[in-house]
Each structure stands twice: as C-alpha cells, then as structure tokens.
Amino acid sequence: MGGMLLALVVAAAVVATAIHPAVALKEGECDVCITFLEKFYNSLKERNADFTVDNVEKELIKTCSDAKGKENRLCYYLGATSDAATKITNEVSKPLSFHVPVAKICEKLKKQDSQICELKYEKQIDLGTVDLKKLKVKDLKRILDDWGEGCKGCAEKSDFIRKINELMPKYAPNIARNDL
Question: What is d(CA 40, CA 32) in angstroms, rounded to the nearest whole number?
Fold first, then answer.
C-alpha cells in the first residue's frame, strides 16, 4: 500500500510540473517585454512620476497609445490598448509601483500568456551602411513605417528611396545620404 501511495504522489508531482513548468527567462527571451517596460519604467523615474498603482497603469495606457509594431502588440496582450480583449495591466502596474525588476515582471507575464515572450523585434536596418537600392520594397516600406511615415503615390522602388532620403535629415540626421 505504501508503494502505491508513493507512486501516486510522484505522479501528482510530475503532472503539477507539467502544468506549471519553471518559467525562468533565457537569454534574449522576452526582449520586447523587457525593453519596452524598462523604457517605460525609466521614463517614469526621469519624470519623477508618482509610483502609485493607478498612476502607473494610467501612464502605461498613455504610453501604449503611441506604441508601434511589436510594442503595440505587447500592449494589446497586456490590455493597454482600446481594442484589447483582456486586461492584465495590473500585472504590470502593481509590481512596477513597488519597483520590481522588469525581467521578473515579464517572467510572471509569460506564465499568464506565453505570447508575450514570443514577441521579437525585427532586425533593424543600419541606414549608415546599407545600400537602399539593394533592399526590397518591403524593407523600404518598413523603414518609413518605423518612422511613422507613409509614401503616398509611391509606385516604384525609386519613389520609396527618394522619400527615405528626403526624410533622412529628420529621422537620421547623423547619416548623410546621396544615393538616388
């Protein structure tokens, strides 16, 4: 009988481990979550913001309203966008109000929604070294999109390159481009 009880306890432990596996973050995992929340937390500290739960949540929603790309998707998963189906913003605002490390917050969020840590930033294009003529139109559009710009009337690749070069002084002033 004792052997049977021991087998049941071991089986229960195995099932519990399968249901709640250890979720320690690996190197490079949750990079969108960690990067976004660190920027957010640092901006609050720089502005000497009030670190109450309500204020942190309000500021998170405000910051998320301007988020683009993968960061906007993270905000959606957190429920900090107007079109989000669920709302777990308190899982960020409460620990941040107590200055819990961002990596720990993202680790906990991963347990609730694994999609949060599956978000990855797209590889950034180095405008200082890249030959725009060798990029695909899709990548040229992405550069403009990252800048929050469009290209009305652009039909040819050269139109997108011209628009990027036109906007370069505004978004990348340290890079002088003369390749049309």
Answer: 12
